[in-house]
């Protein structure tokens, strides 16, 4: 059994999900969204993400973490800010010596829906089909579940050192 923490990083909303995977069996454990207060200065918002992800690692003891690679936006400032939120989550996981696996958005979509350019509604429907117990309330939460599921589908292709 492998416990996977999936993270959809963002400065306003960081989606997270925990699933268990064994062979072809997937079990939904929990999911949610980290919501740093928008009135806080940037360092405090990043600290909120860092601490919250750390608390999730401590609570659920994942064996692996899968996280979305941020695509480059037209606005470089937006990409930089998203990268900082992503880094906060990565450092929280890495400090606990949990292996981290990074996936591009199209790889996640293709692993779940067989279509690399699936829209959020298609991803949501596959999440609900594969894990009926999961009832994501936001796209960020749904995406985090999808990221965890994508890793569970990719695990057999990963070569361990």
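Sequence proposed for the structure above (161 residues):
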């Amino acid at each position: 059994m492998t416990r996977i923490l999936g993270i959809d990083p963002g400065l306003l909303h960081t989606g997270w999900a925990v699933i268990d995977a064994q062979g072809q069996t997937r079990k939904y454990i929990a999911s949610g969204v980290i919501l740093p207060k928008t009135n806080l200065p940037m360092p405090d918002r990043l600290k909120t993400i860092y601490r919250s992800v750390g608390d999730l690692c401590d609570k659920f003891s994942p064996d692996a973490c899968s996280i979305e690679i941020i695509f480059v936006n037209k606005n470089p400032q937006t990409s930089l800010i998203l990268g900082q939120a992503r880094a906060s989550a990565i450092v929280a996981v890495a400090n606990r010596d949990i292996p981290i696996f990074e996936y591009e958005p199209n790889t996640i979509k293709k692993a779940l829906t067989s279509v690399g350019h699936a829209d959020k509604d298609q991803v949501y429907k596959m999440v609900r089909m594969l894990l009926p117990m999961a009832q994501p309330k936001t796209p960020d939460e749904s995406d985090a579940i999808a990221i965890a599921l994508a890793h569970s589908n990719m695990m057999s292709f990963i070569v361990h050192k």
